[in-house]
Structures are given as C-alpha cells and as structure tokens.
C-alpha cells in the first residue's frame, strides 16, 4: 500500500487530469455549437417569420401582425410567352427588385390590385410581377411579367400591409416601399430588424384608390383590353342592343346585390329602386347642354337579374337585361356603353373606369358612421369627374 503522501499526490494529479479533460470537452462542444449557430444564421434571413396558411412554409413578416390569406389558387406553370415578350416595355416592368401583391377577390378587386401594383412599381422603380395563375389574366391582355406559384416561399420577400381603410391612399405603405428601395427621405430602417434595402416585397391589401395608378392611367387604359373571345361576344350583344334604337345612346347599369346583401352589418348598402329611378331619369332628361337627346336604351347587368327584372323593368320603356354571360363579358358590355350607372362595389367601379362616357354612382353606398363609411376618402376612391347621386 502506498504511503499517505504518495496517495494524496496521485489523487491530486488524477483530479487535475479530469478537470483538463472536462475543460477540453466543454471547449470542443462550444466550438461545435457556435459553428452551428453561425451556419444557421447565414442560411436564414435575420428577420422574424410566421407560418403561411397557404402551404405551411415559413414566410417573413414586417410590420404586419397578420397575413391575409390568398384566396387565389395557383400552380407552378411557367411564365407565358406574352409576358416574357413584353419585358421592360410593360408598365411597371423594370428589371430589378421585385414587387408583387397578394391577389384575392373577384374581377374588380384584382383589377384594383393590378393597377395599383403597376402604378406603384412605375413610380418607385420596382419590377412589378403577378402570379402566372391570376384569373384576370384570362380576361384581359395584361403585360406585367409573372412569377410562379412558389415564389413567395422560395424567395422570402418582405411583406408590407396596407392600412385598414377601405378606399384611400396609404401614404405609410408608400413610405416604407420607398425606404425599401433606398430612395425615400426621413426615417430609415433604424430599430426595425429584418427590413433590408433592395429586398423583394409583397403588398397585402386591396389598394382601392385611383391615386395609386393615376401616373399610368393612359397606358393602363390601352392595356386593359378584353381578350378577343370576350370582346367579340360583347360586340355581338352591343349590336343587338343598338338594333332598332335609331342611334340613341346606350347606358350601362350594374346592380350589385348578391354577397353584399349579407354584409349590411358591416355598413354596405345596395342600390334601391329609388336610386335607379333617379339615375335613369338623369340620362333621360336631356344632354349636358340642355338640348334634346334621343331616348336612351338601358342595359342592365347584375348578380341578381331576377330582382332587377321585378323592380326595374317598369322604370323605362327600353331596358335590356343581360343573362347567361360570364362576368367578364358583362363587364365588357357595360363598359362599352356610352354612359355607366352603378350602385356599389369594385366590379361596377371598373365598369365605370373602363368606359369613356359619364359615370353616375350611388353616393350613399355605406351606412353612416359605419366602418366602410369612415374608412373611405371619397376624393381618393371616386374619380373627380364622376357624379354621385
């Protein structure tokens, strides 16, 4: 047996060796941990993420607290030859930092988003892109370049949320977009991690203000032409409506009911018989110079034709009700009439914008003090030359 002194020395040497071994193991695993963290940070953008409702992948969010679900089904089809051929000649088609919109809704909503996207991209120098499966692409001869279905998931663009107002211009949104492009003035990205100048971006919102695209309105009118099969069918209907009317003007009427009937609680109103009686009387009473005018023919399109027939057919001796057409054909017909009347909704709004005549709309389209009424700046939603009744 070793003497006590030698046993104590051996125990001390064993303890020192074990400490050195533990320290070496700790340093080894610390180096591995730091390496893994560094690798993860270089492979992921340094910005917060949220779970997308569309495909379960993580997507970045900026100052949006929620993501509006995309109701448009998309697939992975390639960019069409027409869009590729358009290239830089398309409005909003500058190559570089991509800007897109989370498209949703029907024809009217999609047209607002398309037009606003093109106008904003033109003003701020983005490369405007639209989904290759956007429904209105099958209706209009659009020229903006496209992006495939998985673009958001694979490119992780910055997401910017439009304000909560219904029909108005969101200056805050434009400010953040200009800062993203590095061309804005004032506050920079200080204190807001994840926002990177030069990043691609997607706008979430309905963008329902003509001021977003007033800078390209003339070019937009030339671009928003219906595809041949839609235009040809509309032309056939218009010829039938003009047959035997001795050159009298056609006044298109769009009556929106359907889904808005269920949204009265949110403040929406739909046109009643009194509104349409007064609107028809306006166009029946003479021309703008006070002279006589031929009795017009009124052409009515609606998502509730039965209500229109029951309530409007006795308001004028010459009223035509459109039935059996697609929504695109009806819009083409109404927008090509000499004048347009509509009560409420983005579909009727675009019937008016696409027309070349006088547009008359229902002024009290929302209940007083409702969210819709408070959120709409009329000067930024209705064109100044339109007439509210």
From TrEMBL:
Highest taxon of the lineage: Eukaryota
CDD domains per record: Fut1_Fut2_like
InterPro entries: Glyco_trans_11 (IPR002516)
Membrane topology: Single-pass type II membrane protein
Name of protein: L-Fucosyltransferase
Gene encoding the protein: LOC106819201
Species, as recorded: Priapulus caudatus
E.C. no: 2.4.1.-
Record flagged with keyword Phosphoprotein: no
Annotated family: Belongs to the glycosyltransferase 11 family.
Annotated metabolic or biological route of this protein: Protein modification; protein glycosylation
Transmembrane annotation, as ranges: 21-40
Cell compartments where the protein resides: Golgi apparatus, Golgi stack membrane
